[in-house]
Design goal:
The chain is α+β, with helices and mostly antiparallel strands and 189 residues long. It is 41% helix and 32% strand.
Length: 189
């Protein structure tokens, strides 16, 4: 047992995880995840046009449909942000399929939804996820229009060989992220 060869915080974290099932010290669990952001396009304008009561009813229907699509594909809704959500999935293909289904369900409700997907390591902090990968997924969402699912090259590469198809949108400088990032639109069959 060479415990002195391993940094103390790693040993303590692993003992804590073993005994309690979680870690509370400075280190956070990191996992590879497909990160999905969605957003209802023009929600403020729709709320104004429909009125609060009708808008809240429609938003509740949308949220129920989105919950079902995320759960059906093995994802987890991390949090809701007004008229959008942040969810994680173990597989990028499932994040893409959920995004496409959420967009289609919203369209059937008469609302436009846009989505952004990235795959990266994330830090799990309580029930939340943090890290640069989350920021990149949010920036991909920012480049999407209503009815679109925009991804990074990392997502397309991760699902290579599948039946999923993409169209390049070109290289983008993403706010707060160094370098250029190729973004793609997921093409629905």
């Amino acid at each position: 047992h060479l415990l002195w060869a391993v940094p103390d915080d790693i040993v303590v974290d692993q003992i804590e995880r073993h005994l309690t099932g979680s870690m509370t010290s400075g280190s956070h669990a990191r996992t590879m995840s497909a990160i999905l952001f969605t957003d209802i396009v023009g929600s403020t304008e729709q709320n104004t046009a429909r009125g609060d009561s009708a808008w809240l009813e429609l938003l509740t229907r949308h949220d129920d449909l989105a919950d079902r699509q995320v759960t059906l594909r093995g994802g987890r809704i991390v949090k809701r942000m007004g008229d959008g959500l942040l969810a994680t999935f173990p597989l990028p293909s499932e994040a893409l399929n959920a995004a496409a289904a959420i967009v289609a369900d919203a369209d059937a409700l008469g609302i436009g939804v846009r989505a952004g997907v990235h795959v990266a390591e994330v830090a799990e902090v309580g029930d939340d996820v943090l890290g640069l990968g989350v920021s990149i997924a949010a920036r991909a969402l920012g480049e999407a229009s209503g009815g679109e699912v925009v991804t990074t090259r990392a997502v397309a590469d991760a699902v290579a060989g599948s039946k999923l198809r993409f169209e390049s949108r070109g290289a983008f400088e993403l706010k707060g992220v160094s370098g250029e990032w190729e973004l793609l639109t997921a093409i629905q069959p």
